[in-house]
Structures are given as C-alpha cells and as structure tokens.
Amino acid sequence: MNTIKPNPKINVAGVTGYLLWLRQDLPTVYAKAVQTFPQVAAFDTVLRAQLQSRGLGFDWSSIGSALSGAASSVGSVLSHVGSFVATNAPAMLTTGAGLYGLVVKQQMLNSQLQLAQAGQYPAQTGIVQSPGNQPYMTSIAPAGSFTSILSGSIAGIPTWILLVAVAGGGLLLLRRR
User: Fold this and answer.
1) Is 141 strand, coil or helix?
2) Where exactly are the structural domains of the chain?
3) pTM for this predicted structure
C-alpha cells in the first residue's frame, strides 16, 4: 500500500504561486533558478524581505500582493524557468526507473507550469512512498476552482457536457420508475 505525505498547499495563484511552490517543494532547484535568472533573484529578494518583516505564523496569501510585482518580471521568462526546472528536477520526482517515470515527472512539472501561465493555483503535491520502491513526488490534489474543473475535458469531451449527460441520464432513470 502506498502512503502519501502531502506538502502544504500554496494559496497564491499564477507566477507567484508557481515560484512559491518551487521554493517549497523543490528548494535546490529554486536556489539554482535564483542563481540563473535575475528575475527569480529579484523575486527572491522581495520574498525574503517580506518574510523578515512578517515573522513566523503568516499565510502565503497574506504576502501574495507584495510579491505580484516581483513575480510579473518572471512572467516574461516563465517558460524558460519551466524548462530549467524540468532539466534540473531531482530524481525523486520519478515514479521509478525508465521512460514511465520520466513521463510522469514531466507531466507534473508541465501541469504546474501551465497552471501558473493560466493564473491558477499550483496543484498540491506530496511524497508517495510505495512498499519496496523509492519515494517520489507527484500531484495529489488538483488546484483551482469548480469552474476550472468544468472547463477541463475527459477523453477530449468537455467535463460540463459529461456532467449534463450523466445528470440527464439519471433523471430519465428516475422518471421511468
């Protein structure tokens, strides 16, 4: 049986949320991004100043507005940062050896980047420990709101159409009784 240790949710959307997720869940990659991208370094400087001025016990969302200006400069290089993250992500992101693990890792990192680009919250991630296997990080809870779920698709069919079809079928069944 797999056990999952969830990481805390990030309550800030967009580029700011992505950078906070990166800092929290992949700190070594974040540190390398700070050294590589001046825009991420500027964001980190503002973040550190906010953390020092607020002390312990704050909520990420309470400093989100202060960070949005610094994060906006990262928005112009976000796709480059995302590629950098994918290249430098540690091995613990894979679910095992081989191609499958690499595909799952890339899907999770791409998903987090796409959520940031769409101005949405990062998905919550966690560390999965399976018996006899190495631990790995994966998305454990989708981010976003009910409307983002409805705007998604399953097998290429919009989710809202599937929900309407299921509800309509259920009503027909109830009516026949």
Assistant:
1) strand
2) 3-142, 145-177
3) 0.73
